[in-house]
Design brief:
Length: about 230
């Protein structure tokens, strides 16, 4: 489990996270949602240990973030992946040196499923193919927690659906996926837990299936209801 406890993050004058607390459960797909600039990326960076907290703590399976637990986390940021001059084969080779649990077989299997060859240079890939490669880089690290920041940003509906299918296919029971996205209808059917944030604060958390069955509400319906009052 990931425990986010009373976390505050201030960038110069902006309070990006304002005393926020929630838990991410094992074996679940958790979606962190909110409008632009409410702190979604900052939360993922905080969980990955990439930003220093001003207050509060984050525990990964009961332990504070340290070099020891980095292997448990794979963070896929919303920016272009590194080393644009490398081709895919070289990128995978780099990853295998850098990440101790890197699964090259899985990386190539996913690449084959995406119908991409490993000789393509990263800088020459289309947005959709870059997004596909980023998903492979996240999943082939074999981390327990996979954090995906806006993985569908700027890509077409077909590639979004394909990536979602691939995520479900390659996620194991022991893994958890935490995802931020604005493409809610596409992920509606795969998400377990939903966390809404606004101005760095938690405004609502719920189970997507329960909301559907008990309240007859989709995630988008809930979002409209919650944010209308904010
Ligand atoms: N490095 C930074 N320096 C200063 N302010 C920052 C920095 N990173 C983020 N912020 C500010 O912190 C707030 C939260 O940003 P964050 O990127 O976490 O939001 P977000 O919900 O992911 O937004 P979006 O959906 O637009 O990607 C915003 O007001 C943003 O401008």
């Amino acid at each position: 489990m990931i425990e986010v406890k009373n976390v505050v993050k201030i960038y110069k004058r902006t309070k990006a996270l304002d005393n926020i607390s929630f838990n991410i459960h094992e074996g679940k797909i958790t979606c962190i949602l909110g409008t632009n600039g409410v702190g979604k990326s900052t939360i993922l960076k905080a969980i990955s240990g990439l930003v220093k907290l001003d207050k509060g703590e984050i525990l990964i399976d009961g332990e504070a973030i340290s070099n020891k637990i980095y292997d448990k986390l794979a963070f896929v940021p919303d920016i272009d992946i590194h080393f644009p001059q490398l081709n895919i084969k070289e990128t995978f080779e780099f990853m295998s040196v850098f990440y101790k649990h890197w699964n090259n077989e899985k990386a190539y299997e996913m690449l084959k499923n995406f119908n991409i060859t490993d000789d393509k240079k990263i800088s020459n890939l289309s947005k959709g193919n870059k997004a596909r490669i980023k998903i492979i880089l996240g999943f082939a690290q074999e981390s327990k927690y996979i954090l995906l920041d806006e993985p569908f940003s700027g890509i077409d509906i077909f590639k979004r659906e394909e990536i979602i299918k691939m995520m479900v296919r390659y996620m194991t029971d022991e893994q958890s996926i935490v995802i931020t996205t604005h493409e809610i209808p596409e992920i509606e059917m795969i998400v377990d837990d939903v966390i809404f944030i606004n101005n760095g604060k938690l405004v609502c958390e719920f189970n997507a299936e329960e909301a559907r069955e008990k309240e007859g509400m989709s995630i988008v319906d809930k979002m409209r209801e919650v944010y209308r009052d904010e």
